[in-house]
């Protein structure tokens, strides 16, 4: 039960943070409001969203009360965007800013001046939460990611409670809507808990929200249907909203504690009904309620900066002056002999111990707590020397075996998970079920397979939810994989973008250390989406991510299973990265020994000596497993037709936005000439869009010698080989292109060029007629075997 002292303390704390948030938005001087405002005190640009700040401050104060009361770790994730003035106000009062920035933000009036002057100023502090700010693990305002990130953060952190403030506008997004389903996945026995608080302030930028116009009964029914226990707090109710909120937080904490205690004593908690607080407070609460007859508080007009002409308009300035004065901030602190701030004793009673303050919570600094994985033995997993070159095998099956062994080796650390929006079996990763299961907290029937309360595979058909959970898991220092169908990965492109921005911004922050990589595995590749059709043929994610910062993004396209194992091991050892591993799940030829795969991975580019001639007349290159198979088949054909022609085959297995191959390769630009020759034609067969490779080699002086083949946005329900035919990446098309390059260079004459081209075109016609008649590819295509 709350008491009068606690309520008074909460009110003072929120007064102080509301004042500091307002001062940050408006003032460049006189930030402590020690005299009446003048026009010259106002910033030239007024940025930030005042409307959400009071709610952020109100919740922060109530979280602090629970931390102090129960001595338990909490983190606070703020979903509504542009509310950083409120977040920063709380980080200042709790002392986190002064701890991490003692020189620039000391715990005195100078520190307050700094955060106010620099908020939303050039080279100052952003309007969103950001990695430069203590305790933050996502920006907020990111199209609905907050709740999923919170769920990811509490996995394998059993004592942690992640309080997530969800905006009612944010609630209308797809990612947020799917995030409510995580209650089906997170075990109370071994994980922490998420306490969602939906801030129903009623409005977005210029109109009402859906939840803002729902009755209490409708809200209660909706969240009960989602499997939660809703607790409603309403500032319009008769009871003081501070008492309501404190009671709601106590009730929610008691429910969380009860669920976890019973689960940890061995009770099987089916459908745990976690609490959710539905908090109705007015948008822009405690600000200017109206101006010139226009309603501001409790209306969309308070969404951003209200009375925004204070620098020139006397009426606006007077309204702001009265508004700041209403908080009576001068009553809430004193200055000691050393010039330090001493806040009111009631406010101090809500400041948590240093190690438990939200801004000092060590789990928000994943680089501080990360532990490297114990790696499986690749020698035992790989296809060994007894497997002849060209014999078929499975890349994704081998990756599944690697993950199985990694789960076993790291069982005690509990720092590894798979987040799979497409079924693990479909992605050929089923070997993991020899060691773990799919997590599931709802009823499990006797005929269900590979499901348990504490499985380490998180599987649910929402890319948004699971990528958000992976974000939360990795930035709090753990390791994860996100395998998905290539065509569906674009669903999370913006989320991946924001993850990369978070990682990149973190690298310049002195108190943040490198994080485990976020590993995205693309399977069900377009070359084998022959049965699903055109809708499932989409390598856009790969191309989009390769536009991003090269230090953050690496794309690995292993040509076979042994290379897949090598790159899987590397991906999980990487730090501060988003890695994309592109691997087919169908049976494909195996080309490299483990030793050869490791050698190639050092540079990401390698001449395959076993398939190449010295002093080549032409170069053929492949990037991707299916297209590599077609390259090798084309070599067999052209050597039969032109036995005297010398050919080099180059395998490219690593891409980033600054070129082909690894950074070591990029640091030696002369290696491009060494690999691709200085003057010979190059036919390059690529898994994705040709323009991706064209951009990557644009600055290379020899780029005009390249003929880039790739996905040309052609496809349908067809046969596997016909997918390559339709996009010009088949073996027959490669022979045509190589013959043309050889003719251009004078290696073969026109007659031979025309003869080869005619032959290949006829083979393409024959193939089309065959599949239309029989529905499958010819035997010589399906059962093709490499010969040298």
Salient structural properties:
Rossmann fold, 3 domains, 27 helices, alpha/beta, elongated, eight-stranded mixed β-sheet, 788 residues, five-stranded parallel β-sheet
3D structure, described in words:
This protein folds into three domains: 4-13 and 51-103 and 121-285 and 340-365, Rossmann fold (3-Layer(aba) Sandwich), CATH 3.40.50; 373-378 and 389-588, Thiamin diphosphate (ThDP)-binding fold, Pyr/PP domains (Rossmann fold); 606-782, 3-Layer(aba) Sandwich (Rossmann fold), CATH 3.40.50. The protein has 27 helices and 26 strands. The chain is an alpha/beta fold and 788 residues long. 55% of the residues are buried. The strands form seven sheets. An eight-stranded mixed sheet has the order 14-11-15-16-18-17-23-24, with helices on both faces. A five-stranded parallel sheet has the order 1-2-3-5-4, with helices on both faces. One of its GO terms (biological process) is carbohydrate metabolic process. Its cofactor is thiamine diphosphate. Residues 585-786 form the Xylulose 5-phosphate/Fructose 6-phosphate phosphoketolase C-terminal domain.
Helix content: 25-40%
The name of the CATH topology of the largest domain is Rossmann fold
User: What structural category do the secondary elements indicate?
Assistant: alpha/beta
**Proper CATH architecture of the largest domain:** 3-Layer(aba) Sandwich
**Global mean pLDDT:** 95
| Structure summary, number of beta strands | 26
The tally of structural domains comes to: 3
Strand content: 5-15%
Low-confidence stretches: none
Strand order of the largest sheet: 14-11-15-16-18-17-23-24
Total count of helical runs of at least 4 residues: 27
**How many strands, what sense, and barrel or not for the largest sheet?**
8 strands, mixed
Q: Look at the structure and give the CATH class of the largest domain.
A: Alpha Beta
């Amino acid at each position: 039960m709350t008491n009068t002292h606690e309520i008074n303390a909460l009110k003072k704390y929120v007064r102080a943070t509301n004042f500091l948030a307002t001062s940050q938005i408006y003032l460049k001087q006189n930030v402590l409001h020690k005299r009446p405002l003048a026009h010259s005190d106002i910033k030239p640009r007024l940025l930030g969203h005042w409307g959400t700040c009071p709610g952020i401050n109100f919740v922060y104060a109530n979280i602090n009360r629970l931390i102090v009361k129960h001595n338990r770790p909490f983190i606070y994730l703020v979903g509504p965007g542009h509310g950083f003035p409120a977040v920063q106000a709380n980080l200042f009062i709790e002392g986190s800013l002064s701890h991490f920035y003692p020189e620039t933000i000391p715990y005195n009036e100078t520190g307050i001046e700094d955060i106010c002057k620099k908020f939303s100023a050039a080279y100052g502090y952003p309007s969103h939460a950001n990695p430069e700010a203590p305790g933050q693990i996502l920006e907020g305002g990111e199209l609905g990611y907050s709740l999923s990130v919170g769920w990811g953060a509490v996995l394998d952190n059993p004592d942690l409670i992640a309080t997530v403030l969800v905006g009612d506008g944010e609630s209308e997004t797809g990612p947020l809507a799917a995030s409510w389903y995580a209650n089906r996945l997170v075990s109370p026995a071994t994980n922490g808990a998420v306490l969602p608080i939906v801030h129903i302030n009623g409005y977005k930028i210029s109109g009402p929200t859906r939840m803002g116009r729902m009755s209490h009964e409708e809200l209660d029914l909706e969240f009960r249907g989602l499997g939660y226990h809703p607790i409603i707090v309403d500032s319009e109710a008769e009871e003081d909203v501070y008492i309501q909120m404190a009671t709601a937080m106590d009730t929610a904490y008691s429910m969380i504690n009860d669920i976890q205690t019973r689960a940890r004593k061995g009770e099987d908690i089916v459908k745990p009904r976690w609490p959710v607080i539905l908090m109705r407070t007015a948008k822009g609460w405690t600000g200017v309620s109206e101006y010139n007859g226009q309603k501001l508080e409790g209306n969309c007009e308070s969404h951003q900066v209200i009375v925004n002409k204070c620098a020139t308009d006397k009426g606006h300035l007077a309204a702001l002056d009265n508004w700041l004065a209403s908080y009576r901030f001068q009553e809430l602190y004193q200055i000691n002999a050393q010039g330090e701030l001493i806040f009111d004793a009631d406010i101090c009673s809500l400041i948590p111990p240093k190690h438990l303050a939200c801004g000092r919570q060590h789990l928000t600094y994943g680089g501080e707590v990360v532990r490297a994985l114990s790696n499986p033995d690749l020698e035992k997993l790989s296809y060994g020397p007894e497997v002849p070159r060209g014999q078929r095998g499975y890349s994704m099956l081998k990756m599944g075996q690697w993950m199985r062994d990694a789960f076993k080796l790291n069982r005690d650390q509990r720092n590894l998970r798979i987040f799979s929006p497409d079924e693990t079996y479909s992605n050929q990763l089923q070997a993991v079920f020899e060691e773990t299961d799919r997590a599931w907290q709802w009823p499990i029937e006797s005929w269900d397979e590979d499901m348990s309360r504490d499985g380490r595979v998180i599987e649910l058909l929402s890319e948004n939810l699971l990528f958000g959970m992976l974000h939360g898991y990795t930035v709090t220092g753990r390791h994860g994989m996100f395998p998905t169908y290539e065509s569906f990965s674009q669903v999370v492109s913006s989320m991946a973008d924001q993850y990369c921005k978070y990682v990149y911004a973190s690298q310049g922050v002195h108190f943040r250390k490198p994080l485990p990589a976020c590993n995205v595995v693309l399977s069900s590749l377009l070359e084998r989406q022959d049965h699903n059709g055109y809708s499932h043929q989409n390598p856009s994610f790969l191309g989009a991510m390769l536009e991003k910062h090269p230090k953050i993004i690496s794309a690995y396209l292993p040509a076979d299973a042994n290379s897949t194992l090598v790159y899987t091991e590397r991906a999980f050892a990487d730090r501060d990265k988003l890695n994309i591993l592109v691997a087919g799940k169908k049976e494909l030829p195996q080309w490299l020994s483990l030793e050869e795969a490791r050698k190639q991975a050092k540079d990401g580019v390698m001449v395959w000596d076993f398939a190449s001639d010295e002093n080549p007349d032409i170069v053929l290159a492949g990037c991707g497993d299916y297209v590599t198979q077609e390259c090798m088949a084309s070599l067999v054909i052209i050597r039969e037709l032109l036995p005297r022609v010398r050919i080099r085959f180059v395998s490219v297995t690593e891409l980033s936005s600054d070129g082909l191959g690894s950074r070591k390769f990029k640091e030696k630009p002369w290696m491009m000439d060494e690999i691709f020759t200085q003057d010979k034609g190059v036919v390059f067969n690529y898994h994705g869009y040709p323009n991706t490779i064209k951009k990557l080699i644009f600055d290379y002086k020899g780029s005009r010698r390249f003929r880039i083949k790739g996905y040309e946005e052609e496809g349908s329900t067809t046969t596997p080989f016909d997918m390559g035919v339709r996009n010009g990446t088949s073996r027959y098309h490669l022979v045509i292109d190589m013959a043309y390059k050889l003719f251009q260079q004078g290696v073969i004459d026109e007659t031979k060029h025309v003869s080869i081209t005619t032959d290949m075109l006829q083979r393409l016609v024959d193939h089309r007629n065959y599949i239309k008649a029989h529905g499958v590819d010819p035997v010589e295509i399906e059962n093709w075997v490499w010969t040298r």
